[in-house]
Each structure stands twice: as structure tokens, then as C-alpha cells.
Amino acid sequence: MLVAEELALLALDPETGRTRANPSTVNRALAGALLLDLAHAGHLRLDASGSLGLVNTAPTHPVLGCGLSRLTGQIPLQVRDAIHHLAPGLTETVLDTMAARGLVRRDEHRTLVLKILVRWHMTAPAMAEATRADLTSILATSSGTHASSSDPVLGPRETALLTVLGGADLLSLAETSPDAAAVERMRTWCTDVAYGRNCLHSVPDDVLAFQRAVHGALSTSASSPTVSTETVTA
After folding, report:
1. How far from 136 is each of 34, 122, 170, CA to CA, in Å?
2. 217 falls within a domain
3. pLDDT per residue as tens digits for the range 97-151
4. Total domain count, the chain
5. Domain with 88 in it: what CATH number?
6. Where on the phi/psi map is residue 145: left (φ > 0), alpha (ψ -120 to 50), or beta?
């Protein structure tokens, strides 16, 4: 499963079928996750100036194909601009492709004013809970401490999820600690993870460069006031 798909499941509220966070923020986080998926699959490269370039334009995964189609004709461009191009409506796009594979179910309801409300329901909620449990365990045991040989080795999946959740200020999707100081330590550590610091990881250098760029772009957006652009299909 792609990082973008795992993030989409984390963002879904199983009770309401809607996102558990600001829809615009979730869209931007998904855009960052999709860039990391594309980089790890070998479809994008990052040059010395920080501009994206195409490497392979024949993805076999529908979500990756959607991402490349949105970027085609725009490249070369900076990571922050790529996120801007990818983000609009990306949650629904990702969930639609997952629905086609039976991972979520799309339910449509008409309101009294004939608007269509779309809700998404996980067919296997245990997948999201397993991802959340993995991240909660990693955050609880590793954040706020110096890296040691006993720490778990983080792979591209874990580092990408932590990079995006920390950069977009969406750690609440994985960790619900009421302790503000603990949450801040986790956020700081996620920045370290994005940069390959203070953690054991197995992330290739080229993907690590993407992580740094994605985290920087998302954290800049997260620090700015956000206005929800949720539509009736969110």
C-alpha cells in the first residue's frame, strides 16, 4: 500500500466517513505523501536546485499515475509548487482509486436541497488501526530521546508517514496524547526524521532529499492560516 493510501485511511473518521482534520490540510499532506511515493518508486528526481524532474513516466499503480498526470507539463518545478498542483481534490481521487480496489466504500446521499454528500467507509478498519498503532509505538519509544542501537530502524514507509504528519501538523491522526509538551517533542523529532537526524533509518539519500523538501514545504503551509475548502464531496 502506498504512503498516500495509508495516510488517507488515517485521515478518515470511521463514524462520519469524513476526514478527521481540515480537508485542505489533508489534501496538502496527501500531495506530499504522493511525491514521496513517486520518488521511492523511481518516477521523480530532485536536482541540486531543488527542482523536480521526471525519470519514469509509466507507473503501474493508479494513484501514482494520477499524480504524474497532474504534474506532466508542469515539470520542472519546486516541491512546494508540485504540492500546490497535486493537492486540490486529492483526497477524493485517492479514495476513489481505493474504492475501485475494495479498500473503501463510497456512499452518496442527496440532501433536501439536492446536493450530493459523499462519505467514505473503510472495508477493513484494522488496516488504519495497525498503521496508527505502528506510528504511536514509534513515537512513544523514539521521540524526545537520542538515537540508540536499540531503536527500531525506520524504513521509507515509516519515515515518509512521520515526515508528512509532522510537517503538516497532523500528528493527531496517529497520536492523541493530551500532553502538549509531549506532542511538541514528537513534532520536533519528526523534523529530525525528515532530515535523517537522530534516528536509525534505511532511506536512500535521494529519497531523503525529497523528505527534506516535502517537510519544508508542508511545514511552511502549516504555519500559515488555513481556510477550509471542503465541498459536499469531501
Report:
1. 22, 20, 13
2. yes
3. 999 999 999 888 776 666 778 888 899 888 899 999 989 888 887 766 676 676 7
4. 1
5. 1.10.3630.10
6. beta
